[in-house]
C-alpha cells in the first residue's frame, strides 16, 4: 500500500476511534479492504493512539486564539497524524507530513481546513 493511501486509511481509522471509541485494531479492520495489513498504517494509527496526550499538548501549545477541544474532529485528527509523523517518524521529513495533511484536509475538511492545518503545523516545525 502506498503511503498516501495508508495515511488516508489511518485518518479514517483515527476518526472512527475518536468518534466511537473503538480500539485501534478494530478501526483498522473497518477501513482496510484486504486482509493484508500495512506496517506504515499500523504504525501511524497505533503511534497516534499511544502518544495522543503528548501530541495534543504539543498541538495545543501552537494554536492561536483556539483551544484544542474547540477544533473540529477532522482538523484534530489530521493535526494529530502529522504531529506524530513530525515528532516520532524519523524517516518522514516534516514538510512531507505537512503536505500530506494539507492534501487530506482538501478531501475531508472544509474549504479553509488546508490553510488552518498548514498554519498550525508550520509553527510546530
Query: Shape from CA axes?
Result: globular
Number of helices: 7
Q: Mean pLDDT, nearest integer? A: 94
Percent of residues in beta strands:
under 5%
Q: Uncertain segments of ≥5 residues (pLDDT<50)?
A: none
Q: How do the helices and strands follow one another from N- to C-terminus?
A: HHHHHHH
Q: What Rg, in angstroms, do the CA atoms define? A: 13 Å
Helix fraction bin: over 70%
Main pleated-sheet profile: none
Record field, number of beta strands: 0
Alpha-carbon distance between the two ends: 27 Å
Question: What class would the helix/strand composition place it in?
Answer: mainly alpha
Family: Belongs to the NusB family.
Organism: Halobacillus amylolyticus
InterPro entries: NusB-like_sf, NusB_fam, NusB_RsmB_TIM44
Function: Involved in transcription antitermination. Required for transcription of ribosomal RNA (rRNA) genes. Binds specifically to the boxA antiterminator sequence of the ribosomal RNA (rrn) operons.
Task: Describe this protein with a few key phrases.
125 residues; mainly alpha; 7 helices; 0% strand; globular
How is the secondary structure organized here?
Blueprint (H helix, E strand, L loop, with lengths): L2 H18 L3 H8 L7 H12 L1 H9 L12 H16 L5 H15 L4 H12 L1
Pfam families: NusB (PF01029)
Function: Involved in transcription antitermination. Required for transcription of ribosomal RNA (rRNA) genes. Binds specifically to the boxA antiterminator sequence of the ribosomal RNA (rrn) operons.
Keywords: RNA-binding, Transcription, Transcription antitermination, Transcription regulation
Amino acid at each position: 500500500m502506498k503511503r498516501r493511501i495508508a495515511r488516508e486509511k489511518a485518518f479514517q481509522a483515527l476518526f472512527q476511534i475518536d468518534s466511537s471509541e473503538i480500539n485501534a485494531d478494530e478501526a483498522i479492520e473497518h477501513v482496510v479492504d484486504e486482509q493484508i495489513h500495512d506496517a506504515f498504517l499500523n504504525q501511524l494509527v497505533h503511534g497516534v493512539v499511544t502518544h495522543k496526550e503528548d501530541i495534543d499538548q504539543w498541538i495545543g501549545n501552537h494554536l492561536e486564539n483556539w483551544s484544542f477541544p474547540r477544533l473540529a474532529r477532522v482538523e484534530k485528527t489530521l493535526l494529530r497524524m502529522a504531529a506524530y509523523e513530525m515528532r516520532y517518524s524519523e524517516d518522514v521529513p516534516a514538510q512531507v507530513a505537512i503536505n500530506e495533511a494539507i492534501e487530506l484536509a482538501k478531501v475531508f475538511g472544509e474549504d479553509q481546513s488546508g490553510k488552518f492545518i498548514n498554519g498550525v503545523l508550520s509553527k510546530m516545525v
